[in-house]
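This section describes the prediction task in plain terms. A model, or a person checking by hand, is given the sequence of a single protein chain and must write out its three-dimensional structure as a string of tokens. No templates, partner chains or ligands are provided. The sample shown here is typical of the held-out split.
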Amino acid sequence: MKLILLGPPGAGKGTQCKRVVDRYNLAHLSSGDILRAERAAGSELGRKAQSYMDSGGLVPDDLIIDMMIAAIKKAPANGYVLDGFPRTVVQAEGLDKALTAAGEKIDAIVELKVPDSAILSRMTGRRSCPVCGQVYHVVNLKPKVDGQCDKGCGALVQRKDDTPDVVDHRLKTYHEQTAAVVGYYENKYPILPINADQEIDRVTADMFKGLDDLAR
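The expected answer:
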């Protein structure tokens, strides 16, 4: 199963991806996680991407496409979930071109839908572990010990791109560029619209039902 998970920043893509990965035994290919790993490693890609990421802007399409295609080629035969990619129509076209050349295709697009007002509340309260990447929230998904990762990694942090000004910019960028990706895929692959403005387990249940129906 090869899936793309789309939705605005803060829609819960990372959390839901992990659940899809566990249920269907897929690889989780998160563009954000891969970029942060490259930045932490001090690679050439990481250095180029850092200024874009810190300001909440999109990393240039050519860098992202090359990075994600390389990750897809390393994915196991069971399939994968693309999280945070493609974010522009140009990226979607680049992905389609690479998949067609390899004789492959995407099985479905999962679109998480959340109002902007809910996104702002979610993201400014989000905290993450800089070691393992686990994400928490000060209200909706609290760690067992305040400010500490449940896995014992240490203190949680607020990412620079989760501050109010950056969140506003990221939402504007999403509506201007990424939302068009859904339109690009409308006549290409099945699209599963999911109401993600509800309790996390309810979102998961709705998503699993749609994917199970597709797999039958």
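For orientation: Strands lie at 2-6, 27-30, 80-83, 108-113, 126-128, 135-137, 191-195.
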